Amino acid sequence: MEGRTNNPLMLKSLNHISILCRSVEKSLDFYESVLGFFPIQRPHCFEFHGAWLFNYGIGIHLLQSEDPENMPKVTPINPMDKHISFQSDNMAVVEKKLKEMGIEYVNNRLEEDGIYVNQLFFHDPDGFMIEICNCDNLPVIPLSQDTIRSCSLINRNRSTVVYGPLT
Question: What is the CB neighbour count within 10 angstroms for residue 42?
């Protein structure tokens, strides 16, 4: 693309995602006890119920639905649905903990050129899908001759980042 820059909006990182909830309290408990997020101060100027959480370099903003009874119904777990993904170095422990907590999940294993990726998909209380994977096993390979800039939080010992054109 002619005149394309690598960062036209001068972005630094992903700051947060917002999730609409039937019950902020139930979601808060889930994100704390299952995913290890911790609550942080939320500006007092907001005129709606919600909560902010933080961990792993990302924020989650829980927003109370104004009409919780008419929120979409929870659908079966589908790895092709929208989701947020978290990395783990020990998928066996994650799967064991999900079983212990009684959380329904779908287990998926991919193989690409001898590299294996394990994925576990499950829902939060409102049906928002979460993936936990060891996706950092896969190299990050740009599809064009453009170079990529790695996130400052990448664990460089575990991630493979390829710079420059593919041959």
Answer: 13
Q: Is 164 left (phi over 0), alpha (psi -120 to 50) or beta?
A: left
| DSSP run (H or E) holding 17 | strand 16-21
Phi, psi (5° rounding) for residue 93? -65, -40
Q: Are 59 and 40 in contact (CB under 8 A)?
A: yes
Give burial (CB, 10 Å; 0-12/13-18/19+) of 155.
Answer: exposed
Which residues are part of the catalytic machinery?
131
| Contact yes or no for 134/91 (Cβ under 8 A) | yes
Residue 68's contacts (CB-CB under 8 Å, 6 or more residues apart) are 21, 22, 23
Q: What are 90-121's pLDDT values in tens digits? A: 999 999 999 999 999 999 999 999 999 999 99
Considering the entire predicted model, what is its pTM?
Answer: 0.82
β-pairing verdict for 50-55 and 58-64: antiparallel
Non-local CB neighbours of 146 within 8 Å, separated by 6+ positions: 4, 6
127 by Cβ neighbours in 10 Å (0-12 / 13-18 / 19+) ranks as middle
70 vs 65: CA distance, rounded Å: 9
